[in-house]
TrEMBL record:
Organism from which the protein derives: Hominiventricola aquisgranensis
UniProt subcellular location: Cell envelope
The Periplasmic binding protein domain, residue ranges: 21-260
UniProt family annotation: Belongs to the bacterial solute-binding protein 2 family.
Protein name: ABC transporter substrate-binding protein
Keywords tagged on the record: Signal
Amino acid sequence: TDEAADATADTAAADGDAITIGFAQVGHESDWRTASTKSCQDVFSAANGYDLQFVDCDNDSATQLEAVRGFIEQDVDYIIIDPIVSTGWDTVLTECEDAGIPVIVIDRTIDDSDKYVSWVGSNFKTEGLAAGEWLKAYAEAKGIEEINALVIEGSTGASAAIGRTEGFKEIADREGWNIVDSQSGDFTQDGGQEVMESYCKSYEGKFNVVICQNDNEAFGAMDAMKAAGVSYGVDGDVILVSFDACTAGLEYVQKGEINADFECNPLAAPFVEQVIKQLQAGETPEKEVYMEEHWYVNEDILSEITVDGEAQPLTVVTDDII
Ligand code: AHR
């Protein structure tokens, strides 16, 4: 809202003190998350003139609300939230607004309140659409006529999971694919392994695609498939698709064990710093900032896919990229 935008902190910077920022981070569930935390710690360092109060909320919504209220009590200059779930935010964001503390949301979205200054992140539905469009083009190129897909979703209620599910399902419905099952692996390696172990038992020989909504789930799913004697990747029976494109994920793409990996950019902090600089200068930042992302494959049998009517390049992973 305009009030939120106007609620520029009482500029500690103006008198030369550090700018205090409270960051309520989701947790430490994935490689992506580690990169996101490091990005914020690097940008909002003491050397750069910031005092960063960091709370790892361990994937617990109550802890995250408590962290935000703690920042209000400390009267920090700005609050950064990466919302674990997309709802249940309006009351606490009103409290931030009443306290005159601007909130910047990163990565996942808040869907039941607009009482924040700016959001910086990814279009998760587009990521899901891209995975679907890539699978369609790949299956056609390889002469695969029937798709029986198992989905390992991210954390329930997280906009990253909701958007990727919606996007992929839109293409699956359009193409008449069979989604055999779709369960949450909570964005963790253990979760991905557990769900895949149960899928391998329940659906032996009945699937040819596995969609993991992040790389860590894919690592767990690979372990489970190996143990169950299911072959996957470029030379296997099962097409494995992942999201995030973290370093380890891209190494598996290069080896041909993951067929395609759809990037989710974790490096929001430099964009957040821009927002803070604009607020310090009394300017109104953009309400939504989308970060640039790429889609990575092992083989160049396809050079691009069409998503939402627009041709988009695919990037073949090489040593330079990793
Ligand atoms: O919200 C972004 C998602 O959360 C990333 O895909 C995943 O790795 C993380 O845990």
